[in-house]
Amino acid sequence: MLRLRKMQKEQKKGGSPQKTVSVAYIRAKRDLQEYEEIPGISISYSESNPMHIKLTVRPTEGYYANGIFHFECQVPEDYPNRAPEFKCLERIYHPNIDLEGHVCLNILRNDWKPTLTLGLVFAGILHLFLHPNPNDPLNKDAANDLSKYPESYEHHVQTSMLGGYVGDLKFDSVWDSHKRRPFY
Length: 184
Hints:
alpha+beta; two-stranded antiparallel ribbon; UBC; ATP binding
């Protein structure tokens, strides 16, 4: 905040002709600069636009092991007062991600606090793949499968990750082509 005020004062004094930078821009840039790499997560963004981030999740264990999942993150102009928005780019079978890619993660909704960072949200999204939560679903069919029929859920996850059908819904292949396919 102090840096922002200093930059704004310089602009008023006729200092360097920099464009006005928002608090959200500065905070997002700082979050990304201070981000410590998390195994299974990779991020990319333009230095000139830290408000749009591409996130790749590669779980190494659990139901979604050997999958590659891509997300886009849009940081809102009132960040950190409002949570960033994430969307999964592939159609996947997951209780906390709906078929349009919306993500249900408590820290992106009710539990959001301005003290949380982008890095913590990245870790939270990875956690959804390691420990899907059937008690707070966006995809009720997947949540029902996970809570009542875990073996069926595992089969549906594997089928969907390979780009197959679950019921009458076709899913995107997210299987890491360098990994061995599952046997069932």
